[in-house]
Amino acid sequence: MADYRVEVATRARRDLERLSPSLAERLGRAMSALAADPRPRSSEKLAGLEAFRVRVGDRVIYEIDDRARLVIVSRIRHRREVYRKLR
């Protein structure tokens, strides 16, 4: 099975730039791992949305397009902020 391609949206890229280098590195590894397995055991489907969440220090919110074999990371934020303006 071919891997998925991971794209980071502009908003998520800005979120990532605000983080400490060590946390950004951990999140980068976690996002790269989504290419091999976009639905890891640690992920959760978000209720009412076509999005998933994986927790690595902060929350990574992403969508999966199985037809295009694409994972789109839309937000990277702390848990108290990440779910605002998603719905």
Notable characteristics:
87 residues, alpha+beta, YaeB-like fold, five-stranded mixed β-sheet, 3 helices
Secondary-structure element order, N to C: EHHEEEEH
Major sheet attributes: 5 strands, mixed
Q: Helix proportion of residues, in percent?
A: 25-40%
What class would the helix/strand composition place it in? alpha+beta
Low-confidence stretches: none
Q: How many separate domains make up the residues?
A: 1
Query: N- to C-terminal separation?
Result: 32 Å
Strands in their spatial order, largest beta sheet: 1-5-4-3-2
Radius of gyration: 12 Å
Write a structural description.
It is a single chain. The protein has 87 residues and is of the alpha+beta class. The protein has a single domain, classed as YaeB-like fold, CATH 3.30.2310. The protein is 32% helix and 31% strand. The chain is built from 3 helices and 5 strands. The chain has helices at 10-17, 21-36, 79-82, and strands at 5-8, 44-45, 52-56, 58-65, 70-77. Strands 1-5-4-3-2 form a 5-stranded mixed sheet. Strand 4 (58-65) and strand 5 form a beta hairpin. The longest helix is centred in the first third of the chain and has 16 residues, at 21-36. It is globular, with a radius of gyration of 12 Å. The model has no long low-confidence stretch (mean pLDDT 87).
